[in-house]
TrEMBL record:
It comes from Serilophus lunatus (silver-breasted broadbill). One of its GO terms (molecular function) is ATP binding. This is WRIP1 ATPase. Residues 17-167 form the MgsA AAA+ ATPase C-terminal domain. The gene is Wrnip1. One of its GO terms (biological process) is DNA synthesis involved in DNA repair. PANTHER family: ATPASE WRNIP1, WERNER HELICASE-INTERACTING PROTEIN 1 FAMILY MEMBER. It comes from the Eukaryota. The keyword Nucleotide-binding applies. SUPFAM superfamilies: post-AAA+ oligomerization domain-like (SSF48019). Gene3D superfamilies: 1.20.272.10, DNA polymerase III clamp loader subunits, C-terminal domain.
Length: 170
């Protein structure tokens, strides 16, 4: 029933709040109550990117490994795998930078009226002679061939200067 969602919410919020004791409690309450460990593991995969993100990029690896471990051995043996992951997440630094930036991109797409801007010609592949003649890939700078970062636009002209990592005001 509703308690299923209440407990996963409490686990999520306890990890977000860096409370390792409460995180373990809510995890154990769910598992000892018969919750599917793979459900918890899937939620941990989401948490790794949504709440920890780039503050600790290895969190996603930890979550996927926990999911795979649970899948391979099941309960009750996988409880310690989930416990390790939950404590790791509670102790990890948190960042919602990517989560927020992706939300800003989605908002930009939803708010756009009319056809979406075309992909700039220099960013298009040119596998045929016709495409090359039409200007596809012309002027593209292949970054690995340069010692320093190159000056090159990667967004359509209409979006030049936009920074999805900063809060958008619409």
């Amino acid at each position: 029933g509703e308690e299923h969602y209440n407990c996963i919410s409490a686990l999520h919020k306890s990890m977000r709040g860096s409370d390792e004791n409460a995180s373990l409690y809510w995890l154990a309450r769910m598992l000892e109550g018969g919750e599917d460990p793979l459900y918890v593991a899937r939620r941990l995969v989401r948490f790794a990117s949504e709440d920890i993100g780039l503050a600790d990029p290895l969190a996603l690896t930890q979550a996927v490994a926990a999911y795979q471990g649970c899948h391979f051995i099941g309960m009750p043996e996988c409880e310690v795998i989930l416990a390790q992951c939950v404590v790791y997440f509670a102790r990890a630094p948190k960042s919602i930078e990517v989560y927020r930036a992706y939300g800003n991109v989605k908002e930009c797409l939803r708010m756009h009226t009319g056809p979406l801007p075309p992909v700039p010609l220099h960013l298009r592949n040119a596998p045929t002679k016709l495409m090359k003649n039409l200007g596809y890939a012309k002027g593209y700078k292949y970054n690995p061939m340069y010692k320093e970062p190159v000056e090159q636009d990667y967004l359509p002209e209409e979006l030049k200067g936009i920074d999805f990592f900063k809060d958008r005001k619409t």
